[in-house]
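Narrative summary of target 7.
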Amino acid sequence: MSVREFVVLGTASQVPTRHRNHNGYLLRWDSEGILFDPGEGTQRQMLRAGVAAHDLNRICVTHFHGDHSLGLAGVIQRINLDRVPHPVTAHYPASGQRFFDRLRYATAYRETVEIAEEPVSGDGAVLAETPAYRLEARRLSHPVESYGYRLVEPDGRRMLPERLAEHGIAGPDVGRLQREGRLGDVTLDDVSEVRRGQRVAFVMDTRLCAGVTDLAEGCDLLVIESTFLDEDGQLAADHGHLTAGQAARVARDGGVRHLVLTHFSQRYTDPEEFARQARAAGFEGELTVARDLDRVQVPKRT
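Modeled conformation, tokenized:
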């Protein structure tokens, strides 16, 4: 059975609080799992959320600030301890190679699993092409090199029953037409339409920049930092972050269907204010102000 959901492991920026763990997020995409930005405590949050090391196929680190990466050491060692039976690929900014190396080999352990290192550089790139998705990265704007990630499912076809009936096509012939693209004089285009693939983006520490808008464009699910409220916009700009209103306007302008706000400063005590400011900025789609251990479904295809 296909499962596409975003599991929130932690939502705090800079320091954990009584109610928010350091960052950590898992995207379940059918049979694969992609772990984003494992901060401290990620292993324990995985346990609480029912996420196992065996669920991980990729690890994507946006940047090497501690709240986004200090959990790497434990997660990598757990992957090896549990002898995960498949290779795991790690993506991270190439400029932070020394930090990745230190975290990967922070203490002594026995390596039993292949961890493939595929760092990101430049303005971003297509990192992986699989039958199920294309993984992309875009450069963001933060005091240290930072990248956002985006998963794009290939477009498919939606069969149109009324057109099939018009051409007298039914039963096994439908499958044959899908496989071969033509049945006699009838082409697949005659009886179907494009079904756009699902798109999910993950955007952490950044100011507004071209990379943010590129990643958000047309997304079914956008998970994005909103460290500050709008009244602290200057603080956000100074430290390379977004406000709730800025994140919401990016989602509004990009046609995002479901917006997930996360990475909150400890200075705020009322999470609903983030939702109020997002609505005031004009975002009308589905909205989640993330809490630790939330599970957010990727919206169904339209």
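The chain is about 25% helix and 25% strand.
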